[in-house]
Design brief:
Mean pLDDT: 90
CATH class of the largest domain: Alpha Beta
Strand content: 15-25%
Structural class: alpha+beta
Protein name: IclR family transcriptional regulator
Pfam families: HTH_IclR, IclR_C
Number of helices: 9
Order of helices and strands: HEHHEEHHEEEHHHEEEH
Radius of gyration: 20 Å
Low-confidence stretches: 256-264
CATH topology of the largest domain: Beta-Lactamase
Organism: Arthrobacter koreensis
Helix content: 40-55%
CATH architecture of the largest domain: 2-Layer Sandwich
Distance between the termini: 35 Å
Keywords: DNA-binding, Transcription, Transcription regulation
Number of domains: 2
Number of strands: 9
CATH superfamily of the largest domain: GAF domain
Shape: globular
Length: 264
């Protein structure tokens, strides 16, 4: 039930407070928190005090606010992402032992790709993906391969939401062609999109219902992709993760029918 002049509920305001923190601003004074959460200063001050008393937020030595340890504790007790990470980790370690750059696991969250685990080696190339961080799905090989293996209506709804986005957002027909090709190939390879010196390569991980539930990917130096070896290794690992999630090998793939990029 809404209980504020703006019409948002207490739960919505708490989520806005918690969501105000990110990798760029892990700590901030209450005035900044109020601005980032879109709340009156008095409301932010009161909510912050209550969340600090519950250990969901904590104060630094300088008096700034940051996310509390209890928030991580509660989230870690029961999480679908945690289960996925636990199943995937041995396979990710195998890939990382060969790639020695970046190996990452991600899921779709709204119109972005959310990274839930990443393994990196010393001296590896730059990587904008961070654990618990997001990227727009259209610039990420992981996001693109997941959307490529999504039902047709999911793809079209995404395109409808972004039909008025200006360049450099890709044209709808271009994205449809890319998704169809990625679906045929079973992988996405994006050289120089996020960083001109790197290439992202990703494959889908299928769940028990035959839908793509995650993406397994790597970020490697551009020009040294070795896709003929990297893609089969990723696909083998992805099948192993799928089996660990309870997916029969015969079911580890899309069930939408109608050819590449199609399905309802």
């Amino acid at each position: 039930m809404a209980n504020s002049p703006s019409g948002d509920s207490m739960a919505e305001r708490i989520v806005r407070v918690i969501s105000a923190f990110d990798a760029e601003r892990p700590a901030m004074p209450v005035a900044t928190l109020a601005r980032r959460a879109g709340l009156p200063l008095s409301t932010a001050h009161r909510l912050a005090g209550e969340l600090v008393s519950l250990a969901l937020l904590q104060r630094t030595d300088s008096g700034e606010l940051r996310l509390g340890l209890r928030l991580w504790e509660l989230a870690s007790r029961s999480s679908a992402a945690l289960d996925l990470r636990q199943v995937a980790m041995p396979f990710m370690e195998d890939i990382q032992a060969v790639i020695r750059q970046h190996t990452q696991l991600s899921v779709l969250q709204e119109d972005e790709v959310l990274f839930i685990e990443r393994l990196s080696s010393r001296g590896s190339v730059s990587n904008f993906a961070k654990v618990a961080g997001r990227l727009p799905l259209h610039i990420s090989s992981s996001g693109m391969v997941l959307m490529a293996h999504s039902p047709r209506h999911v793809q079209e709804e995404f395109l409808d939401r972004h039909q008025s986005d200006p360049p450099p957002f890709p044209a709808a027909d271009s994205l449809r062609r890319q998704w169809a090709e990625m679906r045929r190939e079973g992988c996405a390879t994006l050289p120089g999109v996020v960083d001109p010196d790197t290439t992202g390569i990703a494959v889908p991980v299928f769940g028990p219902q035959g839908s793509a539930v995650a993406a397994l990917g790597v970020v490697v130096p551009r020009g040294k992709e070795n896709t003929s070896a990297t893609v089969p290794a990723l696909m083998t690992a992805a099948r192993g993760i799928s089996r660990g999630l309870g997916t029969d090998s015969a079911e580890a793939g899309p069930r939408y029918g109608g050819g590449a990029g199609a399905g309802d």
